[in-house]
């Protein structure tokens, strides 16, 4: 049986932190959250920091009436059909092909560089401690070590973890340079109108650019002016409620708590 409560679409995903001003500090969840906002589908965001509870063991997933579904792309495909929404109707075949290639670059390659730096790169110890800080003891003590081990194993299995750290950072930077080149001075990724690839691009950039601290990959992202302007444009359009809350909700340290500690390009765009 369904009622108005169970009928509301609920998005379950990692919560926020590390200075990221959105509901979530994870790229696939931010992609889906953004797409839902672009599609104007009402939803409730539910913080779920244990992805093993989801149908695919990954974050995000949704629950909607009797449906429980994982995987951001499959969810978007399903909701497009169900609500008859097509954010890409104006795209030509070449633009669609470019969108798919960029999506694969971000999801299958850049994600590994992002994740490596998040859990194993500079500042990782503090980020893991912050993530575990709300958990009860002994989880608070154990989770950082367990996550570090899990991601070391995962990234090794996928191949990325076999490279030296400077190679991983260089490859991540190359992905960001490619995005910057493709975006150029356009307002949205494929021109002057948003399309669903913007949800994916913003999902990845939106977490990378705003992570606090002096991590090389994240700071490099924040130094690329057109990517920063793009994120601020997306933020103003789809996350206007965050414009007055640049300071992180769960600051990692006093440096991260101050907006002025952010890279100059962020301050310039936000000022
Ligand atoms: N293909 C999936 C990927 C989801 C994914 O990798 N999510 C990450 C967070 S951004 C995750 O759950 N990581 C935790 C883990 O692998 O245990 C999607 O599009 O939703």
Bound small molecules, by name, code or SMILES, are:
glutathione
Principal-axis shape equals globular
Specify the structural class: alpha+beta
How many β-strands, per DSSP? Answer: 4
Determine the fraction of residues in helical runs and give it as a percent range: 40-55%
Q: What would CATH call the class of the largest domain?
A: Mainly Alpha
- How much β-strand is present in the residues? 5-15%
Name the strands of the widest sheet in spatial order. 2-1-3-4
CATH topology of the largest domain: Glutathione S-transferase Yfyf (Class Pi), Chain A, domain 2
End-to-end span in angstroms? 50 Å
Q: What is the CA-based Rg, rounded?
A: 18 Å
Please tell me the CATH architecture of the largest domain by its name: Up-down Bundle
Note the total helix count: 11
SSE string: EHEEEHHHHHHHHHH
Largest sheet: 4 strands, mixed
Number of domains: 2
**Residue windows where pLDDT falls under 50 for at least 5 positions:** 247-271
Q: Determine the mean pLDDT.
A: 90
Short description:
The protein is an alpha+beta fold and 271 residues long. It is built from eleven helices and four strands.
